[in-house]
Amino acid sequence: MNRRKFIKTTGASILGFNLSNNSFASSLDFKQTPGAAKHLIYLYMGGGMSHMDTFDHKGNHKNQGPVKAIKTRAKGVELSEFLPLLAEHTDKLAIVNSMTSTAGAHQQGNYMMHTSYEMRSTIQHPGIGAWFQKFHGKVNKSLPGSIFVGGNSRTFGNRGFFEPEYAPLSISNPNEGLKNSKNPYFQDQEFHRLSQLSDKLDSKFLEKYNLDTTKSASSTYVEAKELMNSPDLKAFDLSDVSDNKMELYGKNNFGQGCLLAKRLVDKGVRTVEVSLGGWDTHNNNFERVAVQTQSLDQAMSALLSDLAESGQLKDTLVVLATEFGRTPIINVNDGRDHYPKAFSCVLAGGPVRGGQKYGMTTPDGTSVAKDPVKIPDFNATIAKALGMPWQQKVFSPSKRPFQVAHRGKPIDSLLTI
């Protein structure tokens, strides 16, 4: 931080000014740490991914059930037999097997994972993608800074108390591209003329009500027009992708969402979240996890290969997260229930040290035995990997201080920075 920014930030903090709405209208504009990732691809497993049947196999313990373990590219790192493709990428993965939380319901767990805060009726907290854009701004000015892809992409937190321009663009079906991005009513020249007329009519109102809310609404409208005319709009259209490439990622919404995420990152989008729901396996856990992991294994493996081959992996942090794990004890319906006490998440790319497992659960998978990681600690690690000032406080409209990872501390051994 330079001297001018330091004085501006600390002065506003001491006086209790609202940094998010007054002092910094567009972004906080902190310089990224050298070696930090410039983009984030966040793969969210909605419903609670079974840790024991994916990244935390428990050998011959009776709680493990019928799922076998397989060896991987990384020495001493085993995965579930459901993840044979990712087994070839463990040299890139930092697997955190000691995640722990107290949020055992879906909404609360989802919210906590994305924001580091408990749900409150009085405030909405920003998600990590909004923080990333807030601190470092956009890379490509004509594209949205944050995009959600998938049927479960209604992520809790979103922009929270940040300005509207930090809200993500949501795409439910990656194969349908960006809907309503072309004006069907007017030719470009006529649309430009009408836009100028609209701006003229609005000018007195904007001058009289020179508020952050009106400026944000106006800037969002301008961004929408820029997006409509951007040559990078074609990144949303997968029709020019070869059939072989589509097969590589998997011809399903999650696979095509990961393919779209790679294209958007190539064009400078800061954050892309791709969701894969269906992990709420109270019944028939092993059959359902076999189906879920097939989509996850294929798409994430293709994404990591693609990023590595294009040289983008060093600049792109890939996160695999979920709201909680599943019970080690198998229930009467051959299923696993909600279990926030112990679960797994994964980091790859950017400054992540691959080829390791961090933390450990007990042999029966019921509790964390070594190096517990709370959700804010995991998110602080993400923030540090992205070069965000994770300790920096930003004030909400009610003048309360918040951080990107509430009181969390990064796990330095997972990173090279």
Automatic annotation (TrEMBL):
<dbReference type="InterPro" id="IPR017850">
    <property type="entry name" value="Alkaline_phosphatase_core_sf"/>
</dbReference>
<protein>
    <submittedName>
        <fullName>DUF1501 domain-containing protein</fullName>
    </submittedName>
</protein>
<dbReference type="Pfam" id="PF07394">
    <property type="entry name" value="DUF1501"/>
</dbReference>
<dbReference type="InterPro" id="IPR010869">
    <property type="entry name" value="DUF1501"/>
</dbReference>
